[in-house]
Amino acid sequence: MRADTFTRISRRTIRRIFLMLDLIFIALFLLFLYYAIKDAYVAGFYSANEQINILLGDSDVALEWQRMYVTSFWHLIRDVVLMGISLVWIIFRSMRNELLLGRSF
Question: How many helices (H) and strands (E) does the chain have?
Answer without folding.
Answer: 3, 0
